Amino acid sequence: EIKKANAERELTLEARRRLKEERLALESNTDGQENSVLARAPKKKKAKHPIQPSASSGITRQVEAGCNVKLDGQGTVGTVLEVSGKNAIVAFGNIKTTVKTERLTVTDAKPKEPKKSGISMATIDAGHQRQLQFKHEIDVRGFRADEAVQAVTYFIDDAIRFNAPRVRILHGTGTGVLRQVIRDYLSTVPGVMSSRDEDVRFGGAGITVVELQ
């Protein structure tokens, strides 16, 4: 009975109480009349709360709002939010989808708690704002070599993240040191396809044009 009740607390307690009564009755039987003791055993009582058949019992339970379900026998458990005709809206974690009810199986299993994202809305908004303000060129003229490389590093990272196809780096001609260290750095970045001097009409060797993947 405990197995049939799927270890439901009230039914389990009732079964254990009856087992205890049987054991005490057998222990107190000193005249060897076990058959009479068994004859006095209480008859099986109807459960006060009907047991809901599970999917494993072979009995199909109706899909309705609020119940937990599995899709086509898969392991992921979702919760039915709404049923409309032969379709149901089911939440699997943070994802909501419309599914044919015939593909759903009601289960007593509980859905896993959705993992909370470590990224706050403030961070997302800040990133979006940064993308809107992103400019496709940077001016590092007058910078020391190490300062220029650091600034270009951040600039190229943002350009790749925001899917910019092409950017320009204004470093001037001067002694050619800035141009060289920047080109050396660009050659190590996987997202950079090529780098070249700007057209002479728009700055020539004083500007590096970077093509991005």
How do the helices and strands line up, and which of them pair or pack?
Blueprint: H1 9-27, H2 34-39, E1 68-71, E2 77-84, E3 87-92, E4 95-100, E5 104-106, H3 121-132, E6 137-139, H4 145-161, E7 166-170, H5 177-186, E8 192-197, E9 207-212
Report on the architecture of this protein.
The structure is a single chain. By secondary structure, the chain is an alpha+beta fold. It has three domains: 1-51, no CATH class; 55-106, SH3 type barrels, CATH 2.30.30; 121-212, 2-Layer Sandwich (Ribosomal Protein S8, Chain: A, domain 1). Helix content is 30%, strand content 22%. It has helices at 9-27, 34-39, 121-132, 145-161, 177-186; strands at residues 68-71, 77-84, 87-92, 95-100, 104-106, 137-139, 166-170, 192-197, 207-212. The protein has a five-stranded antiparallel β-sheet, with no helix packed on it. A hairpin with a 5-residue loop joins strand 1 and strand 2 (77-84). Helix 4 packs parallel to helix 5. The longest helix is centred in the first third of the chain and has 19 residues, at 9-27. It starts with 8 loop residues before the first helix and ends with a strand. Residues 46-58 have low confidence and may be disordered.
Kindly list the characteristics that best describe this protein:
four-stranded mixed sheet, single chain, five-stranded antiparallel sheet, Ribosomal Protein S8, Chain: A, domain 1, alpha+beta, SH3 type barrels
